[in-house]
Design brief:
heteropentamer, A alpha/beta (about 425), B mainly alpha (about 280), C mainly alpha (about 325), D alpha/beta (about 240), E alpha/beta (about 250), D: about 240 residues, alpha/beta, Rossmann fold, 2 domains, six-stranded mixed β-sheet, 11 helices, about 40% helix, E: about 250 residues, 10 helices, globular
Chain lengths: ~425, ~280, ~325, ~240, ~250
């Protein structure tokens, strides 16, 4: 019996030792999990590719320069699959910190997973750049090591109202329809508040299930409320379906602005249904942020350079998840360079003070009650337009970044 | 308001027919071999991708490609049967549940690796028809028609061909069928093959209407459970009727209550019917 | 039905494993063992209904979710400490199971399995719409909640030892159930429900009680897990896939005995951990898990422990 | 003498680890009615399952028209013309009477003569003719037994095996079944019968075997056994 | 009078399995039930033990009406039975099988008591050497003994034996008959279905014959055995057999 026990214990220890456990002393280890499987697979992959591009560029110059040490540190990644599920996030982040000796962390994709990872980062006092996580709620929970790259959910759709009041002050009826998911719901709840504050009439405020495939009757319901604008959405699949069916049902509204879906390049597979749909995006290749219009100090490549480099590396034009991934690396790099140190506290201070503009937009963090929340960056609005018989994304908002004028109203396309 | 109701009914019927087709394969397999095929959803997703790639690379209209998908499905299903089910076909339910689930893991695992979970859509615009203020896209009407055609085909197959009759005989009494000279192993494999083929067919048709990922089959699988329980086990027509009921529920209920409650309603119906009349609402027995 | 010696080696072994992270101070080990403990508890408690009674509860994760939500709600809105909140979560799950059991346990075989999937999905869809518990957005802890437990670092250790306690209690309870008159009745139901009833077993009541018992522990596990995770969402709390993983673990180790469930959970957790981080397999771990599951179902239906214990009578006593 | 249609030599088999049959030898000559008698649990049904191939044979040999069929699958044996009318009828309840009959003619051999066999079967059982479109499961026990026999005939059998055809039937129907067997015998159909109704079967049979504890304990012509006290003892007690 | 069955009728989808069956069992007696296959004997046992609801009639046990009680409560009151098609709890050992009977039947024993009780009963039926074997691994005669032991372990007042002799060889039959007699000596009332006429004639105090769901005869064993209706049911109509026999002779 004792033998059996010792064998079992031995097996257990052996099993725990499996997996590489080295970490270079002369390298900067950046740890994160990504969703190689499960429902976040595609967004997470984009984000990862952006991050990888950044690392490649940094390492081609020999790494990040750390002033106090006086030399460059190349960047290495340690990452695991979190399966888009919360189960292992904490285990893997703990492993990244304690076993893989990660110096800095990047968040997983999605707010839910980030929230679980944040506890670990906070507990071990590791700086974590949160990208792909737009929720506001993580940032009033007392964390002091988590820094958000995305514009938070509360400001995602508010600009749609600003656009509307600018182009058509008479349009006052708004239908807000959204996917019943964490992200969409928090975005739309804030949008509703903002709309009401601005004097709009919210004629419909209703959620649909994430699994919804058929919107026909829902669209009939929307039609009956005669809105001027429809805003909302959720993720890609539902947004795409919804758009397709709006077109099929020939719904006559003036503005359609949806989360996520319009920003994804595959949206163009919808053909004419995609035309004139607008949507907020964290970043677009055509966004004309430049050194000239920047409200703060510029850092890193231009939009064009980033887009081209990405296209060269992966064969297609990047979306905002990729840009978010790249930006997370870039901001971290800037913070280390500013701090001149890789000590957490120094980097943290640099991040607190940071106010820069990059190809991705302005970056500045809240240091008050919502510590770490992104306050500098704002959404750009894109619209699908026709150019030479082809569907193209144009940036129409904010005006300083626009690549084309908004085509209004939406029903012009019928 | 009247037009809203009419629209809901019409699109409910069209969607319901598709749901029905999606459930028929599950129901056939359940009825014939008493196996709940937990890889049903994975095969639906495979059907979606088959249709997508045929449209994209062979420039084949999904409404023609669907016949190819059907043929492929039969072969794939039969292979799956021999690999994963044949050995345990008489074992307790748990074994067959887990075996089919493992098939699903393999398909979805490989699918995620190869296709990623990037959403895809087949861009096929065939115009639309307007009925009393409701616009019905042609693709939807076509999927409805095709669903009916495949159901009728299955009926013809099961009731008019020797192979079909053999499958029915096997479902009623395996030993007796064997004594009549039916190769029951092949009959079971064929039944599984057809069940899988119909799942893939439904996927191929759904892909013309809705965007999808490798994970999209899961939703149809869960709906298929509801449909099978509504329509009664083993009956293809029951599945079509169950699908119609579900399609109408989804469309009509939405007019009155918040859309986000629909899935709750569906699963509550599933559990309720199972408790009250486990053989299915429309079943004779 | 001998006295059995299983607990005499199983519990000490478990305690040794639990002590490893504390002694070595290795937080990586702690996280690993935490997950092992969690899986062990889930598998051992599922085994009460699946292995002892023979009912395939496919949507068993619903009780983990219910327990998680009850506890989370109490902790976040009423400031209840983890321990009472956890017990409340367990009781909530057990009550739900008992009530549900009276209705769905009439179904046998695959119908029961489908019904439990339906229950899980229905509850998930409902919670998605209930705004007082956060609806689709879920609930978040404020980081300061961990201050009550002496800061986040201590809170995580605390949740680790709590989980260990739950695991030990679960194993002992599952073992005692198996060795009791109640357990004998359950196993009679598993082997032949009609024969059991004829012999005088009140199958209806026994099944409901077994269902409640097998829901109680997952309810507590849910409470501890989401306490540690810091947030709870319907998608994570009622994840059907995890339900099936639980069955996988029981099958892997061996149906119907405590050691089997423990071994299954252990092997599964390590296997998955290995596949996830191994550079060769990490892209394909899901497909590989599928192949392994299929091989087990086809060629080793009695599971690892079942396979071993059939070898000799002595082992039968040690591996119950 | 002609070679026997069906021959069983030294057959042993059972379920799991439990052996039921311990070396059975038996012959069914062409054109004859051969009967197997025995108490419940003597192994009659097990023997038939081994002959039709539902149960694998452990040891021994089964030959059919001189061909070794010991390891053929049941459906393969059926296609050779070895046809059993199973105990408890085993009709297909959700199929119509017509479909049940058609299923009887499933094998390639039988399909060729489907029309003639159908006419023949229906002429034997005119009552079935009136109910061709009825679901078989809704018929009475007697009618189902008729259907089962008719379905067996549809297979164009080279040997027809009856497993307890009178089980659960009212006396009048039992007689009808035996009259049918008598008629088939007159037409020269080779048959193997397992029956509990000793008198009726012995009155009809050419040759009979008595099984007990998985062994043949007695055999002889119908007349010989009819007069044997031993048979009476086995079934009625002294 | 321990058991009273009045006008019990049960149909299965149009097929009448039991039709107005009425009889009584006295305390301590052995009542044998005979009848051809399909006569409704097992259905009658199911009605008494409560496996299904009867369509009509009344069952009274020890003065208490039990018509609507579920089977487990009837078992608790002291009705135990064996099954014609044995129902061993395959993955439990022989002793555990018997303990189920002891724990949940009339005896309502604790686990420890049940174990002793089980060993005792196993010795009584001659299975003591197999106590640790899994029930699924027993052969048919052993499984019959196991059924018997399980029923006995519950300390029943009435035991229903469904063809416990079928499939046994003469040696086993006689040893089983000894067991049955020994049970009676314990004061347990026995209701037994049997095909082996000489056996049932040998042990029964009274015999009842069922044919097609009806009681056709009841009384002392020899009287029932000689009842023409019973003889016809068992052997078929002798006249008809004779006629066919003669036809054959004539042709031959």
């Amino acid at each position: 019996m004792r033998r059996l026990m010792s064998v079992l214990v031995g097996v257990l220890f052996l099993a725990m030792a499996i997996g590489p456990a080295w970490a270079g002393m002369d390298k900067l280890v950046i740890g994160f999990t990504m969703s190689q499987t499960g429902k976040f697979n595609s967004e997470s992959k984009e984000q990862f590719q952006g991050l990888k591009l950044w690392a490649k560029q940094v390492n081609s110059e020999g790494g990040i320069f750390v002033r106090t040490v006086g030399r460059r540190f190349p960047v290495v990644f340690k990452y695991y699959d979190d399966e888009s599920s919360k189960d292992r996030v904490q285990q893997l982040y703990t492993r990244l910190i304690s076993q893989d000796k990660a110096d800095f962390l990047i968040s997983p994709y999605s707010s839910g997973l980030t929230a679980s990872a944040a506890i670990i980062a906070e507990q071990y006092g590791k700086v974590m750049m949160a990208t792909g996580a737009a929720s506001d709620s993580i940032f009033n929970k007392g964390y002091t090591h988590v820094f958000q790259i995305y514009t938070p959910a509360s400001r995602y759709l508010t600009d749609a109202m600003d656009i509307l009041s600018k182009v058509d002050p008479k349009a006052k009826r708004i239908a807000i329809v959204y996917e019943n998911s964490k992200f969409a719901k928090s975005v739309c709840t804030s949008a509703k508040k903002y709309a009401e504050k601005k004097g709009f009439k919210v004629v419909l405020f209703e959620a649909y299930d994430p699994g919804t495939t058929d919107f026909t009757s829902f669209i009939n319901k929307i039609k009956a409320t005669h809105p001027d604008a429809i805003i909302g959405g959720g993720h890609f699949a539902d947004g795409e379906t919804f758009t397709k069916q709006l077109y099929e049902q020939k719904v006559k509204v003036k503005l359609v602005s949806l989360l996520v879906a319009p920003a994804v390049p595959e949206f163009s597979e919808l053909g004419k249904a995609a035309l004139y749909v607008t949507g907020p995006s964290q970043w677009e290749p055509l966004a004309k942020f430049s050194k000239k219009t920047a409200k703060s100090k510029w850092f890193g490549p231009s939009s064009k350079e980033f887009t081209q480099a990405y296209k060269k590396a992966y064969g297609y034009v990047p979306g905002y998840h990729a840009a978010g991934g790249y930006a997370a690396g870039l901001v971290l790099q800037k913070a280390i360079e500013e701090a001149g140190s890789i000590k957490t506290n120094d980097v943290k201070k640099a991040l607190e003070k940071m106010d820069i503009t990059t190809f991705y937009g302005r970056i500045k963090f809240d240091t008050g009650k919502y510590y770490g929340r992104q306050v500098g960056h704002s959404m750009v609005y894109l619209q699908w337009q026709e150019k030479g018989g082809k569907l193209v994304k144009e940036v129409v908002w904010p005006l300083e970044a626009k690549s084309a004028d908004l085509i209004y109203p939406f029903y012009k396309k019928y | 308001m009247l037009s809203a109701w009419l629209g809901a009914v019409l699109s409910g019927i069209l969607l319901g027919l598709l749901y029905g087709l999606a459930a028929i394969g599950l129901n056939l397999i359940w009825g014939v071999m008493n196996v709940i095929n937990l890889s049903h959803g994975a095969f639906i997703a495979l059907g979606m991708f088959s249709s997508y790639f045929m449209a994209k690379y062979l420039h084949l209209s999904p409404f023609i490609g669907v016949f190819l998908v059907l043929a492929m499905g039969v072969i794939l299903g039969m292979v799956t049967y021999f690999v994963s089910l044949h050995k345990i076909i008489s074992a307790p339910e748990l074994s067959t549940l887990l075996a089919t689930y493992s098939v699903s893991l393999v398909i979805i695992g490989l699918g995620t690796f190869i296709f990623t979970t990037n959403p895809r859509a087949i861009d096929i615009a065939l115009g639309s028809v307007s009925v009393g203020g409701t616009v019905l896209p042609t693709t939807r009407i076509l999927t409805g028609i095709f669903s009916v055609i495949f159901t009728l085909w299955l009926y013809y197959f099961l009731y008019k061909t020797w192979s079909g009759k053999a499958i029915r005989a096997v479902s009623m009494n395996r030993d007796a069928a064997e004594l009549m000279g039916v190769n029951t192993t092949m009959a079971l494999a064929l039944a599984f093959g057809i069940g899988v083929a119909l799942a893939m067919t439904a996927g191929a048709l759904a892909a013309t209407i809705f965007p999808f990922t490798i994970l999209s089959g899961g939703g149809y699988e869960l709906k298929s459970f509801v449909i099978c329980v509504l329509g009664g086990l083993g009956s293809p027509l029951g599945a079509l009727l169950g699908g119609l009921i579900l399609g109408l529920i989804e469309n009509l209920v939405t007019l009155k209550i918040a859309t986000s409650y629909v899935p709750f309603l569906e699963f509550a119906i599933l559990v309720f019917i199972l408790i009250v009349k486990p053989t299915g609402l429309l079943a004779r027995r | 039905m001998g006295k059995g010696k299983t607990l005499f080696w199983l519990i000490p072994l478990l305690l040794v494993i639990v002590a490893i992270p504390g002694v070595s101070g290795s937080v990586t080990a702690r996280e690993g063992v935490f997950l092992i403990l969690m899986y062990v508890t889930l598998a051992v408690s599922l085994n009460i209904i699946l292995g002892y009674t023979g009912y395939v509860s496919f949507g068993h994760i619903v009780f983990y979710g219910i327990g998680g939500y009850v506890a989370f709600y109490l902790m976040i809105f009423h400031g209840v400490h983890l321990i009472p909140a956890m017990i409340a979560g367990g009781i909530g799950a057990a009550l739900a199971a008992f009530a549900l059991g009276e209705a769905v346990l009439r179904l046998r075989g695959a119908f029961f399995a489908i019904a439990t999937i339906g229950v899980n999905e229905a509850v998930k869809a409902l919670v998605n719409n209930l705004n007082f518990i956060g609806g689709a957005e879920g609930l978040f802890f404020n980081f300061s909640i961990y201050k009550t437990y002496g800061g986040a670092a201590r809170a995580i250790w605390f949740s680790y030892y709590t989980m260990a306690t739950v695991t030990v209690v679960t194993i002992v309870a599952a073992y005692l159930i198996k060795k009791s008159k109640f357990g004998l009745g359950l196993m009679a139901i598993r082997e032949d429900e009609d024969a059991a009833i004829i012999l005088g077993v009140n199958a209806k009541r026994y099944k409901s009680l077994a269902y409640a018992a097998s829901a109680f522990f997952p309810g507590m596990v849910g409470a501890v897990f989401f306490f540690k995770a810091g947030n709870i969402e319907p998608h994570d709390a009622f994840h059907l896939m995890k339900s099936i993983e639980m069955i996988f673990m029981v099958m892997l180790g061996g149906y119907g005995n405590v050691t089997g469930a423990v071994t299954g959970a252990l092997v599964y957790e390590r296997l998955k951990g290995f596949l996830l981080v191994n550079p060769l397999f990490k892209n394909l771990h899901m497909a590989i898990s599928g192949v392994i599951l299929l091989l087990i179902v086809l060629f080793m239906p009695q599971g690892i422990i079942g396979f071993i214990r059939d070898k000799s009578k002595k082992l039968r006593e040690l591996l119950e | 003498m002609d070679q026997p249609t069906l021959k069983v030599e030294n057959l042993e088999t059972g379920y799991g680890e439990v052996q039921i049959l311990w070396g059975i030898d038996l012959e069914v000559p062409p054109g004859n009615l051969t009967t197997i008698l025995g108490a419940n649990g003597a192994g009659k049904t097990t023997l038939l399952r081994a002959i039709t191939g539902i149960l694998p044979v452990w040891k021994g040999k089964v030959t059919f028209h001189g061909e070794d069929i010991t390891h053929l699958s049941p459906h393969h044996r059926a296609s050779l013309g070895l046809v059993m009318i199973p105990e408890g009828r085993m009709i297909f309840p959700e199929m119509t009477v017509l479909e049940n009959l058609e299923m009887g003619a499933f094998t390639k051999r039988a399909r060729a003569g489907l029309k003639e066999n159908m006419e023949y079967a229906l002429s034997l059982f005119p009552r079935l003719k009136e109910r061709l479109e009825q679901k078989a499961g809704t018929m009475s026990g007697g009618e189902q037994q008729m259907l089962a026999i008719a379905r067996g005939l549809m297979a164009d059998p080279r040997v027809l095996i009856f497993d307890e055809p009178s089980l659960g039937l009212a006396p009048k129907l039992v007689i009808e079944v035996f009259e049918t067997i008598q008629k088939l015998k007159e037409e020269g159909v080779t048959m193997l019968l397992v029956e509990q109704n000793v008198h009726l079967s012995l009155a009809l049979t050419d040759y009979a075997y008595v099984l007990a504890e998985g062994k043949v304990v007695m055999e002889g012509t119908g007349e010989e056994l009819e007069e044997s006290e031993e048979v009476k003892k086995a079934y009625l007690g002294a | 009078m321990i058991l009273q069955v009045e006008d019990v009728t049960k149909t299965f989808g149009g097929l009448v399995a039991l039709s107005d069956v009425t009889f009584q069992v006295e305390e301590g007696e052995i009542l044998g039930i005979i009848g051809p296959n399909g006569a409704g004997k097992t259905t009658l046992f199911n009605a008494i033990s409560g496996v299904f609801k009867i369509d009509k009639g009344k069952v009274t046990f020890k003065g208490k009406e039990i018509t609507r009680l579920p089977p487990n409560q009837r078992a608790r009151l002291g009705i135990a039975r064996t099954h014609q098609i044995v129902k061993p709890l395959n993955d439990l050992t022989v002793v555990e099988n018997v303990m189920v009977g002891a724990c949940f039947g009339q005896g309502n024993a604790s686990l420890a008591e049940a174990r002793d009780k089980a060993m005792e009963v196993l010795e009584f039926v001659g299975l003591q050497e197999k106590w640790e074997v899994l029930a699924g691994k027993l052969n048919v005669p052993e499984k019959k003994r196991l059924e018997m032991a399980r029923a006995l372990a519950s300390d029943p007042h009435l035991i229903l034996l469904d063809e416990v002799l079928a499939g046994l060889n003469p040696m086993e039959v006689s040893s089983m008959l000894e067991v049955i007699k020994a049970i009676r000596e314990k004061g347990i009332t026995i209701l037994m279905i049997e095909h082996l006429m000489h056996a049932i004639m040998n042990v029964s105090d009274r015999v009842m014959a069922l044919v097609y769901g009806r009681k056709v005869s009841e009384g002392p064993p020899q009287e029932v055995a000689n009842n023409p209706q019973v003889v016809e049911a068992y052997l078929g109509d002798p006249d008809l057999a004779l006629k066919l026999f003669k036809d054959k002779r004539r042709r031959g």
